[in-house]
Amino acid sequence: MDAAPKKRPYCSACSKPVRVCLCSRFKAPLLDNSIAVTVLQHSLEKNHPLNSIRIASLGLKNLTVVTVSDVNTEAEFHIRLLKSKLSSEEEEKEEPLIAATVSKNGYTCSVLHQTDSLKPDFDQILASQVGQDAISNGFMVKKLQRKLGNKPNKKLDEEFEEQDEEFEIAVPPGTALLFPSKGSIDVAVVNFEVKHLIVLDGTWQKAKRIYYENPWLKLLPHLRLNLGKLSLYGEVRQQPKEGCLSTIESVVFAMKGLGHDQEGLDALLDVFESMVGDQRRFKDENMSRSQPRATRGLRL
């Protein structure tokens, strides 16, 4: 029996194969970004070889990556104001200010909050005092994902529901979402201070699903980029339409537009460009080796 092929070694820091490790390409220390960034990363994007958030994680000091999965059964969101001085144990017992339930694919969403017996949607809450308090004071949002599983010692077709906490995120005052929704504001003309930026990481379809399955994002002001630039991804990763950028490019250009120091940010794009160059080179090498057979791109 032939021995199993050895797995190629990977860098534990950048998650790339050692031969194309990104770590040594950072020529400056971590950038102490004044605008903190929270990335909601689709669960299928994390291990993609061309995922660009690995560069942001290595280059930005104030960055948090939160893994977000699709709602395949049902999810609950509990929202509490940040100004609460309750202990963690007391918070667990306290009813959330806003509670929302989202079904698969976000097709239905019911919302309950302490001050109203009605079931408004987030657009209505946004215009209410409850929504304004959440925006001005900041809030905590917890996602509870309901999943189907098999009962122990039962037949395989007998299922039960279990509920797991997927994330809990602090959304401080001054937070904005980078997402080109209807009514979003061009980063270049923002007339308020942005202290914290939330960014969605995934393909365009995955990012849209994150947005619609996390309705609490509607509580935030929405920002967009109008740059007319082509992504450095080029031909190595398909883009749905012209003007779509990688997540690291979106973060960099948004922070530049909001007045952040540009020198350190440009260095992040240099590393990203080198990573894209690696993929392009190996793709070309793979094509030349496999001709005249059908070619297939090699992922790093």
From TrEMBL:
EC class of the enzyme, as a word: transferase
Q: Which reaction equation describes what this protein catalyses? A: a uridine in tRNA + S-adenosyl-L-methionine = a 3-[(3S)-3-amino-3-carboxypropyl]uridine in tRNA + S-methyl-5'-thioadenosine + H(+)
Domain DTW span(s) in chain numbering: 7-284
Q: Which GO terms describe its molecular function?
A: tRNA-uridine aminocarboxypropyltransferase activity
What are the alphabetically sorted keywords of the record? S-adenosyl-L-methionine, Transferase, tRNA processing
* Entry's Gene Ontology BP terms: tRNA processing
Q: What EC number(s) has UniProt assigned to this enzyme? A: 2.5.1.25
InterPro entries, from UniProt? Answer: DTW, DTWD2/TAPT
Give the family per the record. Belongs to the TDD superfamily. DTWD2 family.
Q: Which PANTHER family match?
A: TRNA-URIDINE AMINOCARBOXYPROPYLTRANSFERASE 2 (PTHR21392:SF0)
What this protein is called in its record is: tRNA-uridine aminocarboxypropyltransferase
Print the organism lineage. Answer: Eukaryota, Viridiplantae, Streptophyta, Embryophyta, Tracheophyta
